[in-house]
C-alpha cells in the first residue's frame, strides 16, 4: 500500500518541514537495508546504543528524501538545509512508527491472528501459514519480527490482497505488550507454551503470563493449552470474555481434546494425532515426533479448524508441513564459490532479507552475486506482479546472475531483466546444465523450497567437509557485542579483537559481521592476518598488535595500523615510512603498566617518547593504551588501580604534548564489566565477544560449537582394552563409538582416559583410552544412539569451560586450539 507523505504527516501527528510531494511504500529503520530511496520513509530511532539520526546524512546522499526525526540538529548539521526533503518532527520516532502501523491496521476489517508465548511463536506462525495459504492469502511477520520495531514493520505489510494476517508478538519486560496489542489488534489470539524464557524481568510466571495475555484484549477467540494451570488461572482472572478454545490432552470436555499422540501404524515415520474438536472426531499425521513440534501442531490444528480448514485438508497439509529453518548459513562452496543457504520459506519479504544479507557482506574480489531462486508459491499476487517485484529487488540489491527454478519462473522469464539469467523446470535439469558447471568464484544465494529439490542442490554445491565441523553462530557474536556495548557510553569507541582467527571462530566472517555492526576498530596479532581481512573486503580500521619488522611495507600497502611498543620498533617504522615518502601514518602506542610484556614505561620513557615522536612526521599517535593483568578478579583490584593510575598519568602527558585527539584505552572484556568507569575513549573486546564472560566463566551467547559424528560402533566385552597402550580398560561389557576427531584437530590428549566427555544425543559419553591423532573413542553403552549420529565436543550444550577446567587452563586456549583443518560453518538466525 502506498501513502502520500501528507497523509502520513497527519496520521502520526508530526510537524512537517518541506513540501515536496512523495509517495511512501517502504518504512526504513536500518539504513543498511535501503532499497528504494524515493519511496522510503526513514525513522531515526534512538536506542541506548545507537542514534538513527546519525545515518540521515548518508541516506540523503543515497537519495532518501523523507525522514521522521526527533531533532533537527545532528552532529553539527542542520536538517532544515535539506530543502528538497520532507522532515517530519515528532516527540518519539518509535511511537510514530507504531502509530503509523496502528492506523494502517485500522484500514483492515479482516481476521488477524496474534501469537505470543515464550517458545514456539515463530513455528506456530509459519505452520499456520502453511496450513492456511492454500485457501487464503496470508500476510505474516517475516522471520521472527516480533519486537517493538519488528511488529510495526510486519503489520505495515498488510495489503489489499490480504485475506488474513498472522503476526507474532514478543516481549522481554512488563508493559511492552500494550503497544504491540494496539498495533496488531488481533481478532484471534494464540498463546504458545509459556516456558521460563525472559523470566529475569518478571517477578513470577503469573505476572509474565498476565502480561502476555494483554495482547488478546478485545479478541473474539483465544487458543491456549488448558492443561497448563498457570495459563488457565491467568485467563480466568484476566476478565477476558470472548470465546475460549483450550486444547487439552487430559480433559475430554475441552473444546479441542487431543485423544492420542502415537507413531502411526499405516504411515510409518509419521506421528498420528487423534482429536475431538467441538464434538467432531478428526485425525492428522505429522512428519515430526518431538514434543515441541507436536505441541505446536496442536495449536495450529485447533486454529486452522476454527478458520475453516476441513479435517481432510488439515491432514494432507500437516503431512507436508516443512520444518522452520530460521538460519541463513554461509558455507564454502565448490570452485571458489561462497554459498549462502536460506531454506526459509520462499516469499518476497524473506527474499529481500536474504538479498540484503548477501549484499551487506563485503567482497573485495568483486565476485559476482548470483541468486538461485525457486518458484514462490501462494503469494496472493499475480505471477507477473510477483516476478516484477522479484526483479526489482534483484536489480536494487546488485544480483548479477539470476537462476530461476520452477515452471512459474520459466513462464515469467521476461519479467527478469538481468542480462545473465537462466531458467530450469527443476533442480535436476539445472544440475545437468552448462550453467551449473559454469558456477565459479561467485557468491551464491540459494533460496528455494524443498519441493524443488534444493536440499540436494545445496549438497552438490557444497564443498565436501570432513565430518568434524565448527559451527559459528554470527547472531550470538552480535548479541555478545551488544551485551558489552550496554556497559559503554554512546561515545565510547570499541576495538574488537579478531586475533588468532577470531579466537578460533574464523576472522573473516566474524570481522564482516562486526564491520556490519559498525565497531570502530578491529585488531589482529600479525600483518598477514590483517592482509587476509583486507583481501576479503574489510574496510574498517585494523590494528596490528605484534607488527613484524619485516612487514612494514605490507602494512602501508594494506592500510594497517601498527602497535608501537619500543624505541627500536619505532625507529625502524619511521625509517621505513620515510623511505616510502609516507607522512602521518597512524600508530598505537603501548604502555607497560605492570604486565611486563611489551610497552614503554609510562614514567621513565614518556618524555623521550614524546620528543622522538615530535621530531618526525612519518607516524602519528592515533591512540595510547595499556593492558590489565588481572581485570577479571577482585584479588587484583588494588594492582589494577595502580596500573590505571600509571596509565592515566603517562597517557595524559602524551596527549598534552599533541593538539590532535589521542584515544586512550585500557579496558578489555573483563575490564568493561568490572571497571566500566575506566572505559576512557575506547575499550578492547576479546573473549566476551566469543560468548564467555571472563569474570565468572559464564556463557553469554554460545558462538562456537565443535561437532562431529559417530563413525563406527563396537560391542567390546569386559576386560578388553581400547586404544593405544591398552589404557582404556573396560570394567563392563561396553559399546564403544569411534569419532573422527583427534588431537590434531585440537582435541587435547589430556581429555582422554575418562578425564572428560562429549555429548551424544544430549547424554554424556566419556572418552575411553588415549585420544589418537585423528580419532577418539567414547563410551556410549548407556546411550540410545547409532552410527552417523551427531556428537557435540563443546558448544551449545557443553560449555567450553568444562573442557578448559579439566585441562586446568583457560577457555582461550581451547577455543584457539581448534585446528585449521576443521571446517567452519557460519549461520545466522
Ligand atoms: C587479546 C587482547 C585483548 C582482549 O582481551 P580479552 O581478555 O580477550 O578481552 C585486549 N587487549 C590486548 C592488548 C590484547 O592482546
TrEMBL record:
Keywords of the record: ATP-binding, Isomerase, Ligase, Nucleotide-binding, Pyridoxal phosphate
GO molecular function terms listed in the Swiss-Prot or TrEMBL record: ligase activity
Pathway field: Amino-acid biosynthesis; D-alanine biosynthesis; D-alanine from L-alanine: step 1/1
Record domain Alanine racemase C-terminal: where: 703-827
Catalytic activity: L-alanine = D-alanine
EC number(s) given by UniProt: 5.1.1.1
Parts forming coiled coils: none
Modification sites for N6-(pyridoxal phosphate)lysine: 499
Function: Catalyzes the interconversion of L-alanine and D-alanine. May also act on other amino acids.
Name of the protein in question: Alanine racemase
Annotated organism of origin: Xylanibacter brevis
